Amino acid sequence: MTEYLIRLPWPPQKTSPNASGQGKWRGKSEAAKKYKTACAWECKARNVRPMGCDAVDVEVTFCPPSLRRYDLDNMLARCKQGMDAVAEAIGVDDGDWRSMLLQRGEKTPGGCVLVHIKPVG
């Protein structure tokens, strides 16, 4: 079965659950929709297809754009829409992801989120 390594863009600040000064809730909603669309296009560009399995193991590596410290749980929350786009592309609902490993990567210009998906079974 196929494994995928997908490079997603760094999530916008407005998708953070801790972001302040965002203005109206609409700003967060619009940022989340744009981020999901960008991630879906990235999956399409990488030719990501349904995996044909019932479950996957996922490793997520956050490569920040700066040396600023980021909490892994908050980073996952910021990427929720990106993970939803990946789940749709691979055809495995994120409720069926057997495990998810979160880790910090190296500082990367512009930042990115690396998602490594391995089929189970």
Characterize the structure shown.
This protein is an alpha+beta fold and 121 residues long. The chain has a single domain, classed as 2-Layer Sandwich (60s Ribosomal Protein L30, Chain: A), CATH 3.30.1330. Helices cover 32% and strands 25% of the residues. It is built from 3 helices and 4 strands. It has helices spanning 25-45, 72-78, 80-90, and strands spanning 4-9, 56-63, 97-104, 112-119. It has a 4-stranded mixed sheet with strand order 1-4-2-3, covered by helices on one side. Helix 1 (25-45) runs parallel beside helix 3 (80-90). The radius of gyration is 14 Å and the shape is globular. The termini are close together.
